[in-house]
Amino acid sequence: MSGHSKWSTIKHQKGATDAKRGQLFTKLTREIIVAVREGGSNPEGNVRLRLAIQKARDNSMPMENIERAIRRGSGGVDGATMVEMVLEGYGPGGTAILVQALSDNRNRTVQEVRNIFSRSGGSLVESGSVAWLFDSKGLITIEADDLDTEMLTLLAIDAGAEDVNAEDTHIEIYTRPDELFAVRNTLEQAKIPMVSAELCMAPKTTLKLDENKALQTLKLLHRLEELDEVQGVFSNVNFSNAVLEKYQEQV
Fold first, then answer.
1. Mean pLDDT over all residues of the chain?
2. How is the chain split into domains, by residue range?
3. For 191-204, b where at least 16 C-beta lie within 10 A, e where not — what string?
4. Is 196 strand, coil or helix?
5. How many CA atoms does the CB half-sphere of 135 hold within 13 Å?
6. What's the pTM value of the predicted model, to 2 decimals?
7. Which CATH code is given to the segment(s) 83-132+205-246?
8. Torsion sign, CA atoms 222, 30, 70, 68
9. pLDDT tens-digit profile of 220-229?
10. What pLDDT was estimated at residue 80?
11. How far apart are CA 101 and CA 84, in angstroms?
């Protein structure tokens, strides 16, 4: 399942500018509003809302913005109805890609996503063609630094984690979706700093691409992420550190 956190790290780094942060806040606000409308405004009884609020806090979204989004969701009539969708496609080299979106105009969003796939040498496919290659997981990403990986692995597994994957610069901890909060809380109590803790679609197996196709795929993922309606993008590519470094030099 390795590779997701590397791409996530790039997204966090690229999101540092005011413009990127503003776009991120828009996406986070949308997720909070939909979560409230779906399950109510009490985070204790609404896991999706609790996750959305935690993700907003992790990305330094002001509390007043979070509270405003909750009020908008509770009002029920403020703004157009958002439609949730998962679009599936193939990218360069047969890369499997899932796109999660929230939109007030399904046809427009599908067309925008299709155009990006087409311009990047990929294509949208029918529902179910790609989704079976992924599992819903909780994912906690930690900067490796000087952490004792063996100690961290035992701590995470004892707290309910399913898998721990140590990379050169980051450690990925995978959990069942319903165990994400429990594992996160255990790590927080142990004062272990986290880059992110979120739900993701983790590939059951990963794909390795040559450098050219890997760079093309990263550009495709980035273009998809740039769409306002897109909430999450997941692929089954295990990007090498060398490819990621080269991509960062180009953008």
1. 87
2. 4-75, 83-132+205-246, 134-203
3. ebeeebbbbbbbbe
4. strand
5. 12
6. 0.85
7. 3.30.70.980
8. positive
9. 999 999 898 9
10. 61
11. 6
